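About this split. The held-out portion is used to measure sequence recovery: a designer receives only the structure tokens and must propose an amino acid at every position. Recovery is the fraction of positions where the proposal matches the reference. Here is one held-out target exactly as it appears in the evaluation file.
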């Protein structure tokens, strides 16, 4: 009877000792989907504060008004970030187009989000989707969808109907990212 109890324990001990002597190499470990390139979806959140400016080129039929921003904040998987981006304002069409946000971590890794087709009434259209487009470092093969789930813009309009620069904004993002 004692032999029957010892055999499973001895087998378990041999397996544990065998694994300790030969740990998995990074290549073997990458077969686990959680560690593979483009791994599993992970929650993503960000809070970003920006300063907003505009560039006008009324002769450009594609993008006569380019809205640009830069600032900082915090983002899941990146920590403290510097952020910059731009989009074409809905002047000659009913939607925001050619939009992108570029989040740069302290270590230099970059995550780029892109969007288009956002309606002119942004507040009524929340949440606003963005696709993870590309990145550098650990985000080189990233994918996912991130949403602007809230924002606030503060600024004044001039008598000519154009914004008086700068404006200030705060944005909250939420979604999922795989990398």
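Reference sequence for scoring:
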């Amino acid at each position: 009877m004692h032999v029957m109890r010892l055999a499973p324990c001895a087998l378990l001990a041999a397996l544990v000792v065998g694994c300790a002597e030969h740990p998995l190499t990074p290549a073997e470990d990458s077969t686990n989907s959680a560690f593979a390139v483009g791994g599993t979806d992970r929650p993503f959140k960000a809070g970003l504060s920006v300063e907003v400016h505009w560039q006008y080129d009324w002769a450009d039929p594609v993008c006569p008004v380019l809205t640009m921003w830069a600032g900082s904040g915090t983002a899941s998987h990146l920590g403290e970030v510097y952020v910059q981006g731009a989009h074409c304002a809905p002047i000659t069409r009913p939607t925001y187009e050619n939009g992108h946000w570029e989040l740069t971590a302290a270590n230099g890794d970059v995550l780029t989000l892109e969007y288009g087709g956002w309606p002119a009434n942004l507040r009524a259209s929340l949440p606003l989707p963005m696709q993870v487009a590309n990145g550098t470092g650990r985000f080189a093969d990233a994918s996912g969808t991130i949403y602007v789930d809230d924002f606030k813009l503060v600024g004044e309009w001039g008598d000519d109907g154009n914004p008086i620069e700068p404006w200030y904004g705060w944005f909250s993002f939420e979604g999922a990212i795989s990398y």
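Annotator remark: The longest strand covers residues 163-178.
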